[in-house]
Write a structure and sequence with these properties.
GO terms for molecular function: ATP binding. By secondary structure, the chain is α/β, with parallel strands linked by helices. It is built from 7 helices and 12 strands. Bound molecules: adenosine-5'-diphosphate (2 copies). The site of one adenosine-5'-diphosphate (ADP) has 10 residues, from α1, α2 and β6.
Length: 229
């Protein structure tokens, strides 16, 4: 499951200024769609509507054919896992941090999520490299590695849909490469919506939507968008 459908969605925060204008797209189950475009174009607003912080002014949004207006935020939280751009990690092991929010998960499930996110080699490391219990210093996790912990935490929840939200971050090369890898491997058979600044971050998306001034002004694969400039 996990098909997302936006059907001619219009939205305004103040009831006057249009922020989204007839936005239509579909993310088929298991596919990856990326939203890219300049700041202020409407990408975050699309996510806020998907999380039901607001409802569309007109048009409709559905997940697996069910209109979002009949879905609670609590239920959405179970179905949509968000990997935020900056996850605050605890001064405890990577294992602990992955399990956070899923305390009932068995060790082998946590290890499996860590493997999928390619952070299992650091599973007993501390994010800042300082183990307060043992009093030892080790290598701190890089930004990209912290992002992998956040991805593993989300994978452990096993949501039907994953949202990678990079809307407001200036990605370092390492994190950008990680997101490219994520699209290829860990999110391979999950419905994934990724929000990014640059086209180069989302080379492997099945479809890229260019959002500008509240509209989808272009759509296609990375190759197709490069061809049309
Ligand atoms: P993006 O994520 O692509 O940067 P946003 O969805 O944040 O774009 O913004 C789209 C438009 O909506 C912008 O003009 C922005 O100023 C406006 N906007 C965003 N959030 C709010 C808000 N909470 N109230 C009013 N206007 C908003
Ligand atoms: P902002 O741009 O203000 O950070 P976004 O529109 O990017 O907000 O939405 C991300 C927010 O959604 C997070 O702050 C988080 O609290 C909330 N959130 C995270 N996961 C879910 C979910 N599954 N369902 C609803 N809301 C969520």
């Amino acid at each position: 499951g996990g098909t997302i459908h936006f059907d001619r969605v219009c939205f305004s925060y103040d009831g006057q200024t249009p922020v989204l204008d007839q936005v239509s797209f579909e993310v088929a189950a298991g596919k990856t769609v990326a939203l890219v475009g300049p700041s202020g174009g409407g990408k975050s607003t699309i996510l806020r509507l998907l999380f039901r912080f607001y409802d569309p002014t007109s048009g409709g949004i559905s997940i697996d054919g069910q209109d979002l207006r009949s879905v609670t935020q609590a239920s959405l939280r179970k179905h949509i896992g968000v990997v935020p751009q900056d996850t605050v990690l605890f001064n405890d092991t990577v294992m602990f941090n992955i399990r956070y929010g899923n305390i009932s998960a068995a060790d082998d499930e946590v290890v499996e999520a860590a493997k999928a996110a390619q952070i299992h080699d650091r599973i007993l490391s501390f994010p800042e490299g300082y183990n307060t219990r043992v009093g030892e210093r080790g290598l701190r996790l890089s930004g990209g590695e912290k992002q992998r912990v956040a991805i593993a935490r989300t994978l452990l929840k096993d949501p039907a849909v994953i949202v990678l939200d990079e809307a407001t971050s200036a990605l370092d090369n390492q994190t950008e490469r990680l997101i490219q890898d994520s699209l290829r491997t860990l999110c391979a058979d999950r419905t994934t919506l990724v929000v990014a600044h640059r086209l180069s971050t989302v080379v492997d998306a099945d479809e890229i939507l260019v959002v500008r001034d509240g509209r989808i002004v272009e759509r296609g694969t990375h190759e197709e968008l490069l061809r049309t400039g």
